[in-house]
Amino acid sequence: MDQGKKRRLKRIFQEDGHTVMVPMDHGVSIGPVKGISNMQEIIDKLLKGGVDAVVVHKGIAKRVDVGNAGLIVHLSAISNLSPNSNNKIQVCTVEEAIRVGADAVSVHVNVGAQDEDKMLATLGRVADECDVYGMPLLAMMYPRGPKIQNEHAADAVAHAARLGAELGADIIKTNYTGDIETFKAVVEGCPVPVIIAGGPKCKTTQEILQVTSESIKAGSTGVSIGRNVFQHESPTLMVKALAAIVHNGVSVERALKILGESC
Fold it and tell me: CA quadruple 143, 154, 180, 15: dihedral positive or negative?
């Protein structure tokens, strides 16, 4: 890996090799939902919690101050109003991301979707551009399409993760498979760091903390959790709780105490 990527990755991953990211690209896909109506306000709360990196689109990146957190600019977009909302298209270039000060870029691929071929072509092209500019690439690889019976199935998740690495991604974000042993196989089958997605809003805080703890035990290098953080009643404390698990290996019970909750 070249020095440019190494330097930028140090702004995203702590010395322990782990990261707590909060993606907030949802304004494109589902609009200004609760928690992200005022982007600077939510980012300030995340910074107080010690967030390692945030994921936003280029327009937001131009207008917010992310402090000492890593800035990841998302290159993919489609709204849920589209008749083909699984087809993520490229709306930002690596050069544009560099101009707004990005520490990394991200691309979304729905593996198994009708337009998987186009998304994979984008991923491959962006990976090459990232190598030219020394820009780390995060690939969001989700099993999602007509042939996918279960988006959290171990074989489908492992395939999606490996696919992203095969095409040049430096970090893979994908679904948690539901248990430590099957996710360990996903990590072992992927030659680059794997982080887990938070998915839809969980029913309880304990649920997302438990998934985080299990994924770390399975070998993941962190989390990229959106709605379960920015829609929490205290995003600052939620980031602190996640960081305690990801960086310090505390138990779910201790992490809940940070939030003033109990098992």
Answer: negative
